[in-house]
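I am still getting used to backbone structure tokens and would like to learn alongside you. To get us started, please write out a protein record for me. Start from the sequence, derive the backbone structure tokens from it, and show both lines together. Once you have written the record down, we can walk along the chain together:
***
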Amino acid sequence: MALYQILADFKRPSSEKELTESFSRLAPHFIYGGYINVRDVYRVYICTVEFYFHDEKERANPIKDFIVYHRNRPEKGIVVPYFPLMTLHAHVSGFDITFENEEQGYRASALIREYSVFDVNNNRFLELKKNNRDDRSTYLYDYLNGFSLAGDSGVRWVDEERFPRKSLLQGRRCRVCAYWETGNPQEPYRKIDGVPDDRPWSFKLNDDICLPTD
């Protein structure tokens, strides 16, 4: 099934436990299910994906993730529109593939935390930081950039299942601190420096990218 349809079918879970299970099912589709084609020059393969989720609606048991960049900040009078499904969102930590839902009132995204870049013209992977991978998310700007203001940007997701699949390494997200809710409407949340957010929403490829053969 295409990644777009999989994300379109995503439903808000009833608990963090259920959400973690949903992310574990989504992760292989990002890592083994295709790549980002950049104007037929580069293919960006995701090696590590980190998920983010934040409830905007008032609920009995909301799931909050205050590190999410694209969200409302009522205390500051900031309300941002919902992105269309599978929007590529560039920010100071790298690139997200978003799957927000206005009707269900949540923001959700998959951060490309680690990646490999295939050079189409030279038919080889670029030699990046380590084992042809780079975990410096913002360096992806070197390849995933130059969006056209006059039509198609030439950047698109290509569904392409890769086999064999192996189990992904699951753990907590990189450099994400825990937050606590203060109860103060003027400052509703505060970061706890030095205390990591322990939700296991990171999934890492534990082997080399396996490209399909002709």
